[in-house]
Every structure is written in C-alpha cells, then in structure tokens.
Amino acid sequence: MTTQTLNKTMAKQNTLLAPLFCIALGFATIFVAGHVQASALHDAAHDVRHATGFPCH
Questions:
Q1: CA-to-CA distance for 55 and 15, rounded, in angstroms?
Q2: Which domain holds residue 47?
Q3: Inside any domain, residue 16
Q4: Over the stretch 13-42, which tens digit does the pLDDT of each residue have?
Q5: Which domain of life is it from (predicted)?
Q6: What is the pLDDT of residues 43-56, one digit of tens each?
Q7: How far is 16 from 33, CA to CA, in rounded Å?
C-alpha cells in the first residue's frame, strides 16, 4: 500500500466520520431533551446563559 493510497483511504474515512458523529450527537441531544423534565431543561438553559454572560432577566 502506497502513501498516496493510504492518504486517500484516511481522507475518505474522515469525510464519513464527521457527518456520522454529527448525526449521533443530534440523536443523543434529542433523546436526552425528550426525556428530561421541562423544569430541569429550563434550569440548565438558564444556568448556561448566566455562565456565558448573556442577560436573561
């Protein structure tokens, strides 16, 4: 296997890995958000807003 062939193979794997990771992350986010109680989700979002410096009141 030459270096050029190896580089093409790695590039193809990396090209597929990013979208698959994004899809998995999206499904995980929807799954977690769908099963959490509304007040807990609100409190978490509220805490993130305070931590990042955005006003929320």
A1: 38
A2: 28-52
A3: no
A4: 778 888 899 999 999 988 887 787 888 878
A5: Bacteria
A6: 887 888 888 887 76
A7: 26
Task: Report phi then psi at 53, rounded to 5.
Answer: 90, 10
* 8 Å CB contact between 25 and 32: no
**According to the 3-state scheme, what is the secondary structure of 22-41?**
HHHHHHHHHHHHHHCCHHHH
Sign of CA dihedral 24, 30, 55, 52: negative
Contact 31, 38 (CB under 8 A): no
32 domain residue, yes or no: yes
Number of domains in the chain: 1
Chain-centroid distance, C-alpha 14: 16
Q: What is the CA radius of gyration of the chain?
A: 20
Assess if residue 42 is contained within a domain. Answer: yes
